[in-house]
């Protein structure tokens, strides 16, 4: 039976690749995309989510708009990384799909209450505002979540938005704190692992040689790469968000530790830091599996296979 997931997202080129990977994979049933403000404001992220569904040949997939600002702070965005629309790199047609009526948070609550407990996995790949709001409003849904597999945080690699914080956690640290304290099983894909999932020229050119979908992926990752090349001097774009879906498909590509992870919400220099007790020195109870290693070759082979399948089917 396919694993039921809801992708909570702020597309984002790497979000887009994650969504395509999920939609390409028969082991996964995507119930809906829930959009949140993050890389760009909500009106862009919900639109981008619909553009991606259309590109993937899935106009039937519900897309809900969620929270347009973090719980307790003004929104910080990342146009300098993702471009003005959040999905710069290729111009795709205006989506014909309409937004699904209702708020993403209501959808999350209703779905988790309706479906069998332990059968829904949440995959947040943006700030955690929608998920935390749902958990605050309806604490009864928390024990019904099968698992949360999220992209966020950093520890050894430290930050990409401040010296100590990763973007998704930094944008809404209060939300992240609620989610990490919720008691739901959590798997974390931090920068420590996603910065090892770097695209290579041959991989991008392989994508470009495919049809419409592969070409979009190549253009997106090229756009995304220019920022990382300038910042880190490294070749290749880090495919952060697709690591979550790859983990669901092939956990054997990854390794990490079940440890305690706390979110800094007050630090003068460390706001939004994921304080990961890798060496288990705090005595605090573990609450998350913190991933640190990825078989990058296997990860990119998986992406090539699945995006290729989707491209042949609908591209
Ligand atoms: C995360 O922030 C966003 O820019 C990416 O989409 C990813 O989810 C990486 O820090
Ligand atoms: Ca994202």
From TrEMBL:
GO MF annotations in UniProt: hydrolase activity
Every Inosine/uridine-preferring nucleoside hydrolase domain range: 5-300
UniProt-listed Pfam families: IU_nuc_hydro (PF01156)
PROSITE patterns assigned to the protein according to its UniProt record, in alphabetical order: IUNH (PS01247)
Signal sequence annotation: none
Keywords: Glycosidase, Hydrolase
PANTHER family, alphabetized: INOSINE-URIDINE PREFERRING NUCLEOSIDE HYDROLASE, URIDINE NUCLEOSIDASE
The protein, known as: Nucleoside hydrolase
Species in which this protein is naturally found: Paracoccus simplex
